[in-house]
């Protein structure tokens, strides 16, 4: 039996719209980071994390907060599209939950302000919660990436995507670990930006190298399908 999916089916059109939004979202997130960086005095890109752009006392926390909310929406849309497409349904479900949870953690962190990174500043409950949410987002993304590599073993014709995902996964794991254990605090901001960039590159690789390509069946909600 041959399974085909109509390109004009409502579900398929919605998936394409979501993927276009996910592919373009990193540019908007980058814009919010750049603007927030410019308007925040005494901010150091290499040593200060993005959270410092919305820390207590920051002049324009809403700018980076908007970027985090948008990033969360991107991850949630990406998770939904992956869940529909992956043939390995069990891992696909786990991957979608992890990535969507990472997005939710980012969105929540946008409204829980971090402690300022200045000498003498005391740790607050808000800062501790913000840090925990950031760690959840990082760990969930890394685990999801490696699960995706395993799931792609069931996807014929996409070995290049699987290999690139594995390489990006190890790079994210190493950089994310160094960032999380804070062994080089003087370049925390740089490490965070490299991690985010690598994960954004992975999303683009998966969108353009896998999700927008014809091939495997696309999950259980196959409106417009013929068998």
Question: What can you see in these coordinates?
Answer:
With 227 residues, this protein is an all-alpha fold. Helices cover 66% and strands 2% of the residues. The chain has six helices and two strands; from the N terminus they run βααααααβ. It has a two-stranded antiparallel ribbon with strand order 1-2. α1 packs antiparallel against α6 (188-211), α3 (89-109) packs antiparallel against α4 and α4 (125-151) packs antiparallel against α5. It is globular. Residues 1-10 and 216-227 have low confidence and may be disordered.
List the helices and strands and how they pair.
Layout: E1 4-5, H1 10-39, H2 61-85, H3 89-109, H4 125-151, H5 159-181, H6 188-211, E2 225-226
Antiparallel strand pairs: 1-2
Distance between the termini: 6 Å
Structural classification: mainly alpha
What is the CA-atom radius of gyration, in angstroms?
A: 19 Å
Estimate the mean pLDDT confidence: 87
Compact overview of the structure:
The protein contains six helices and two strands.
Provide key terms for this protein.
227 residues; 2 strands; single chain; disordered N terminus; mainly alpha; 6 helices
């Amino acid at each position: 039996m041959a399974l085909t999916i109509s390109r004009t089916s409502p579900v398929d059109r919605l998936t394409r719209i979501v993927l276009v939004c996910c592919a373009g979202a990193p540019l908007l997130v980058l814009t919010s980071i750049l603007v927030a960086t410019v308007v925040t005095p005494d901010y150091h890109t290499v040593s200060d994390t993005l959270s410092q752009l919305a820390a207590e006392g920051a002049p324009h926390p809403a700018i980076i907060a908007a970027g985090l909310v948008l990033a969360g929406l991107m991850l949630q849309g990406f998770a939904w599209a992956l869940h529909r497409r992956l043939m390995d349904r069990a891992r696909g479900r786990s991957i979608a939950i992890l990535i969507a949870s990472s997005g939710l953690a980012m969105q929540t962190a946008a409204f829980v302000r971090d402690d300022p990174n200045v000498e003498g500043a005391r740790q607050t409950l808000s800062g501790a919660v913000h840090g925990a949410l950031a760690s959840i987002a990082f760990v969930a993304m890394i685990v999801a990436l490696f699960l995706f590599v395993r799931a792609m073993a069931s996807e014929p014709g996409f070995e290049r995507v699987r290999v690139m995902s594995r390489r990006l996964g190890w790079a994210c794991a190493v950089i994310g670990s160094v960032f999380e254990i804070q062994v080089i605090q003087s370049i925390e901001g740089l490490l965070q930006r490299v991690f985010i960039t690598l994960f954004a590159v992975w999303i683009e690789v998966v969108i353009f190298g896998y999700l927008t390509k014809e091939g495997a069946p696309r999950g259980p909600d196959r409106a417009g399908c013929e068998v």
